[in-house]
Amino acid sequence: MKYLNLFFILLLFFPTLSSQTIADLFTEVPDTSIMNLTKDYRLKIVKNHKPGKTSPDKSTDLEQGIYYFFEILDLKNGYLKLSGAMEGHIQMCYWNMEDKSKLIAVYQEGCGPGCYVEKFDFYRYKNKVFTPLDFKKIIPDVYNDFIKGDKKTIEQLMEKDDIAASLLFDLPRNGKNITAKWGNLEPDSKYRKYAKGNRMVLQWNNGTFRRGEVFWK
């Protein structure tokens, strides 16, 4: 009877034990998506994680050569945000697909002085294999959707006024949609002359994303 009870306990928890968390995927994703940090090094970052960290601990982390930390590590929602020895941050999340695979996104934002997209990788993950996907087939090109009026005229006006704009993204911690953020280099008030808004919610569409409405935030 004791062994039978143990069997049922293991059966109950097996899906949880065998399923992979965002921390596991962070460790296993190709090095090229995480600044060429090795799998062993990323495993150290995971093991070193403490909730509420705002910087590496000089007395322990730096002595061990660990220069990165998780601002957010949300295992339940499958989302993380990595900060540390870089100008910017990395976000990572996944979506569960109907065929039991996962769509994985790794987004790196660089800054200096303004912020920009340094890397935005997508993978299909199934049977422990990461298959790279074409970003352009997943995320629509929405930069010009924010511009008010004729694109060429607005671009010339912005150049004359010495105003530049970038397009950044926030991966979802809750829900499935990605948020596109336009502007970013100046106060929002300076962009209202040229743009219809500074945000767009990219709607999840079973493996790709559709344009949403432009709005101000």
Which short descriptors sum up this protein?
32% strand; disordered N terminus; 4 helices; single chain; six-stranded antiparallel β-sheet; five-stranded antiparallel β-sheet; 217 residues
Task: Provide an overview of this structure.
It is globular, with a radius of gyration of 21 Å. The protein has helices at residues 2-18, 22-28, 39-47, 151-160, and strands at 68-74, 79-84, 88-96, 102-111, 115-126, 129-133, 166-170, 178-183, 199-204, 209-210, 214-215. With 217 residues, the protein is α+β, with helices and mostly antiparallel strands. It is 20% helix and 32% strand. The protein has a 6-stranded antiparallel beta sheet with strand order 1-2-3-4-5-6, with helices on one face. Strands 7, 8, 9, 10 and 11 form a 5-stranded antiparallel beta sheet that branches. Helix 2 runs antiparallel to helix 3 (39-47). It has 4 helices and 11 strands; from the N terminus they run αααββββββαβββββ. Residues 1-18 have low confidence and may be disordered.
